[in-house]
Design brief:
This protein has about 250 residues and is an alpha+beta fold. It has 3 domains: about 100 residues, Alpha-Beta Plaits (2-Layer Sandwich), CATH 3.30.70; about 60 residues; about 50 residues. It has a 5-stranded mixed sheet with strand order 2-3-5-1-4. The longest helix has about 55 residues. The termini are far apart.
């Protein structure tokens, strides 16, 4: 009876957590998570935190890689300082990529060793030595690239990626009696400011034209008045109608 060996699988696992905490504890929760990462088999890849700016709430995030055996400890630590409202797990099979990378490294290593053997032969001519050295350089560059890829794959499959987002627990902020009034005042102020800004824009756009429009209107009014006066003076007088005294 022959036993079948199950091939090893290389799986890249990623966890995404969303944590909510009171605003006063958000920074402490973020800092304690980073500090706890240093006590286990864990490395912080990136981290950021923002403070309150006007109406926007503080926000923090941490990206890290953790050994699978320490993953439960990390989750327990995060859950003790905040409330986990969302936990998403993603996995990607990297087995084919890992096997192909290992095979390329093996082939390139064998080829490099063969070139080194050929380079050490005393019977090799100068032209052959130059060509062997060129190929050896190219192979070493490819080998370094594949080794870097192998290291990345090992980091992805041997450690678990964890991304944690920290939000303020808005349920504990509360809504006061005057909060809607304050919101309405802020919105009305914003609308008023937009209206004033639009009015200023219109006025600035009209000012250059007023320099031309006002004199033209004044000249037009004078022209109409003079025209009416001339028509009144040239109109025939009606018999029996009182005549206006002439201007001396």
């Amino acid at each position: 009876m022959t036993s079948t060996v199950t091939p090893q699988r290389f799986i890249a696992v990623r966890h995404k957590l969303e944590i909510v905490a009171p605003e006063s504890d958000l920074s402490k929760t973020w800092e304690s998570t980073i500090a706890f990462c240093g006590t286990i088999q864990c490395e912080v890849v990136s981290s950021t935190i923002t403070t309150r700016v006007r109406d926007s709430f503080p926000f923090g995030s941490i990206s890290m890689r953790v050994k699978p055996e320490d993953l439960t400890k990390l989750f327990a630590q995060v859950g003790s300082h905040g409330r986990i409202v969302q936990h998403t797990t993603e996995s990607e099979d990297k087995t084919a990529v890992v096997i192909d990378t290992d095979a390329r490294i093996k082939n390139l290593t064998n080829f490099r060793d063969s070139l080194r053997t050929m380079l050490a032969k005393p019977s090799a001519g100068v032209k052959d030595l130059v060509e062997i050295q060129r190929q050896l350089t190219d192979v070493q560059v490819q080998l370094d690239s594949e080794a870097a890829q192998q290291k990345i794959l090992a980091n992805e499959t041997q450690k678990v990626a964890v991304e944690i987002a920290f939000h303020v627990d808005e349920s504990v902020l509360g809504v006061g009696f005057f909060t809607p009034i304050g919101d309405a005042l802020r919105e009305s102020g914003s609308v008023l400011a937009d209206s004033v800004a639009s009015l200023i824009t219109v006025i600035v756009a009209i000012i250059p034209w007023l320099v031309l429009i006002l004199p033209a209107c004044w000249l037009l009014i004078r022209f109409v008045r003079n025209l009416r006066r001339k028509r009144a003076m040239s109109a025939p007088s009606v018999p029996g109608a009182p005549t206006s005294p002439k201007e001396s």
